[in-house]
Amino acid sequence: xxxxxxxxxxxxxxxxxxxxxxxxxxxxxxxxxxxxxxxxxxxxxxxxxxxxxxxxxxxxxxxxxxxxxxxxxxxxxxxxxxxxxxxxxxxxxxxxxxxxxxxxxxxxxxxxxxxxxxxxxxxxxxxxxxxxxxxxxxxxxxxxxxxxxxxxxxxxxxxxxxxxxxxxxxxxxxxxxxxxxxxxxxxxxxxxxxxxxxxxxxxxxxxxxxxxxxxxxxxxxxxxxxxxxxxxxxxxxxxxxxxxxxxxxxxxxxxxxxxxxxxxxxxxxxxxxxxxxxxxxxxxxxxxxxxxxxxxxxxxxxxxxxxxxxxxxxxxxxxxxxxxxxxxxxxxxxxxxxxxxxxxxxxxxxxxxxxxxxxx
Length: 360
Hints:
Structural class: alpha+beta
CATH superfamily of the largest domain: Creatinase/methionine aminopeptidase superfamily
CATH class of the largest domain: Alpha Beta
Strand order of the largest sheet: 4-3-2-1-5-6
Number of domains: 2
Largest sheet: 6 strands, mixed
Number of helices: 10
Helix content: 25-40%
Distance between the termini: 42 Å
Number of strands: 18
Radius of gyration: 23 Å
């Protein structure tokens, strides 16, 4: 079971060091991470106030009060629809510098600024993320479990892929397999042929053709933690004569990035290791995104593995390694595993990617 009190105390330490008086969490994931209460308010006021001492107070719709109390939040102030919360907020003790979720709705932030004109509100997700990014063993166990579900889905579906079906058909089978394994499917990007040159293509009714190179990027949630994996295959023999070479370059870049992972290395150094391989092969202009992103309760979180980042990688950090090459009008290749930084290197949540471009 998560130790929410310890998480709040650690956040309090981060706030003190940053000179921040309190933090307001409004997203279900951030509130849940620090309290066990995972519920969104939508347009209604839902705000968990966390202070330097590890204390917490929740402002929420009246319909959520009992659930919050069951989650262990003792200081709860509920509001019925139409009730004015102004006085309750103004008498709450919020003062000085207050950090807020970067994802806080603008309408909610504007209301807080109106209620508390003397308070300085700042973006705070990076502060909260400092606590969330380094995973303990129970969190790592859930990430390994989610990663295994993604591995199983790829192995189950790869042998069923046929020319003539649609991207959406393949995505549906990936999601169904992850669900059958006990996961909650979160996304499945299937991009065949020229669609693969669009890194975040939305799977559609495009029909798979013989010779297509196809990207599959998918993941699920298990126990509150995410998986994210990308594999690239060919529908029969690849039509493009450079497909095998490009796959090998991306695979080499993937392993080059992983080879430098250790505590103390910077995110920029990891990105640079992958980017160097692709640039030296003459495809630098076609690697159009960062090498990776952190992963945990969110699919994207700190640390971000990108050019120039001086973010120091720590033991327990979990992030993707996913270099890619995207050739407009032709095809794309991306290879992604999720890894965690260990005391002496790294461990992967996924099985190793295929050593050559698989024909399906």
